[in-house]
Sequence to fold (280 residues):
Amino acid sequence: MARITASVYTSHVPAIGAALDAGKSGEPYWQPVFQGYEASKAWMQDNTPDVIFLVYNDHATAFSLDLIPTFAIGCAAEFQPADEGWGPRPVPVVKGHPELAAHIAQSVIQDDFDLTIVNKMDVDHGLTVPLSLLFGQPAAWPCPVIPFAVNVVQYPVPAGRRCFNLGRAIRKAVASFDQPLKVQIWGTGGMSHQLQGPRAGLINREFDQAFLDQLIADPATLAQKPHIDYVREAGSEGIELVMWLIARGAMNDSPPRVAHRFYHVPASNTAVGHLILENT
Fold:
């Protein structure tokens, strides 16, 4: 059977992708950010999965205000890098895993979570920047990726509790797939940031570090955090952190092993957080 071996958590700041694509990763401003992922890149070489289930949010690329699914699973054989207004990022096409994606959709929907099944969509920086941070600039991504888009842009957005329970349903689905696949689940977005209004530029280091602590040690309690706490403490875009709870909910109930933890401010106007947890 398939099994989830680890979860990866990371911010997906678009400026990080732009800096990497433009060859600026060694510049003084950006070097500390990319240095923080070097240990993870080495870890990934030794722990490359067969499939990545990548939780992210679309930024008005695949979905517009005309149609906004709360949870959408990509079931296609491949996904093109999106043009977000200045051309697609120079990254490889994302290869999907239609068989596992369809199986997860079947299982999770039967467990009472309504998913939108997407058979064609482009993927933006929310998905490609995390891949670049962990794999660099390869000619092809080293494994298939199942995109899982969550609406954390247009209200109402899903509660952290629902996201955590969805992760548990995904864990059950993966465990019932009849191929011996090693699967990683990635939660992306965040950490604290606000892009507009009087609080634009807000970063809350104390909140971010406490979130990481609790994500590791007590995710069930963290999942009860009300939506307004994210907005008040982490900024309007801090709500992206509920996507990390999907990945954490998919982990085993036993305490995980922390393979790497990294936090840095600033990267653009955002706090960058990163964590790798291994199942035990």
In short: The mean pLDDT is 97. Strands lie at 3-10, 51-56, 71-74, 78-79, 94-95, 116-118, 145-150, 182-188, 257-267, 270-278. The longest strand covers residues 257-267. The radius of gyration is 17 Å.
